[in-house]
Amino acid sequence: MHYSVNNIQLNVIELGNGPLTLVFLHYFGGSALEWTNVMNQLANQYRCVAVDLRGHGDSAAPPGDYSVNTMADDIMALLILLGIDTFVLIGHSMGGKVALAVASRQPTRLQNLLLLSPSPPVPEPIADADRQNLLETHGQRSAAEKTFTQITSVPLPERAKQQIITDNLRSDQIAWRSWLTVGSKEDISSQVIAISVPVAILAGTADTAIPTHVHTTLTKPYLRTATLDFVAGVGHLLPWEAPDNVTAFIRKQLTVHTKE
């Protein structure tokens, strides 16, 4: 389903219903489809809303601003349009940094902030050579296949593998370049100090895209009350690689902190 907000058409996948809404934001080069297995397990209790961020998946890719705060503006506008009241924000990787920006605005009725291997609020430490290679090879299937191998650790069904590669290839060039040259380098650490809701982080121990030390040194110190947990042997794509662990993590955090 497409919704027009903030002068852009955003694709949204909605599933389930309940008094509490779970809002899911995906990783760089991914799409809302990464949350399918997780949403299927939660939809009997919660309203699940997964968003294709601008320039990704089936959302539009207009020219212009793709900064973290502009993507946060998109989400804030979508919350209003969809009449989302009490909600939990769940962000993965790039979507985690966008979720941090949204939560820093202290939206009314935000209950929890859950982050899966998030890009840190300070510039993400991507090696210059890796950054340049990603810029130069985007759109090449061989590069997308190589990226798949690098960012996953758990064997996945062929159908999932092909979807991950397809999402990489269909990410718009403007969005791709903007994240690598602008968004991933942004410093929003002064904003996230304002976050007052409970924050929990989950990451894979085999993640080479955003290694464990990034969470301990570049993210958690800016989130004073955040907890940090790991899934052994899992790479960067937690919702694809370990949906059951992600679902259990979400349920645990909601049980502990959320008042529906």
TrEMBL record:
Pfam family, one: Abhydrolase_1
A single GO molecular function term of this UniProt record: hydrolase activity
Ranges annotated as spanning the membrane: none
GO cellular component: membrane
Segments forming domain AB hydrolase-1: 21-132
Swiss-Prot/TrEMBL keywords: Hydrolase
InterPro entries membership: AB_hydrolase_1 (IPR000073), AB_hydrolase_fold (IPR029058), AB_hydrolase_sf (IPR050266)
KW Hydrolase (keyword) present: yes
Protein name: Alpha/beta hydrolase
